[in-house]
Amino acid sequence: MKGNKVIQTMVIMLAIIALAGTVALVMVMKMAGGEKQGEPSADELAESSIDIPEMTTNLADGRYIKISFKIQTDSDKGKEEAEKRDFQIKDVIIERLSEMKAADFKGKEGMAALKERLKQDINALMQEGKVENVYITSFILQ
């Protein structure tokens, strides 16, 4: 009887160890898969982005700006939608820029604020996708 109890305890312990190992393996695999969700590769970025060619517009203080953008979307559908809405996106950009003054572009914070505002404004237009990031690809202030 005593040998039977020892075998039964060993079987239970092995089952617990096997279960713990399975749980640990699943968690490690999920964590490894989660890392892949991080920053997109250069190819993925290019595939999901559209270019807004250089545009020139007046600022609120009488100066003018030449600027172009690259807009990164979240998916192929988002890119297609942004391409179809390019005239609306350009309109939003011109409206936003026309309210700004040259001083608003000073420093890293000024540029970051513009990009964030444009991201929010463009996302308000989007229905099927969303804008992940706005990049300024050229900038001349006169």
From TrEMBL:
Compartment(s): Cell membrane
Keywords in alphabetical order: Cell membrane, Cell projection, Chemotaxis, Cilium, Flagellar rotation, Flagellum, Membrane, Transmembrane, Transmembrane helix
Keyword Cell membrane recorded: yes
Keyword flag Transmembrane helix: yes
Primary site of residence: membrane
Membrane topology qualifier: Single-pass membrane protein
Record-annotated membrane-spanning stretches: 6-28
Pfam families assigned: FliL
Function: Controls the rotational direction of flagella during chemotaxis.
Family, per entry: Belongs to the FliL family.
Protein name, UniProt field: Flagellar protein FliL
Lineage: Bacteria, Bacillati, Bacillota, Bacilli, Bacillales
Gene name in the database record: fliL
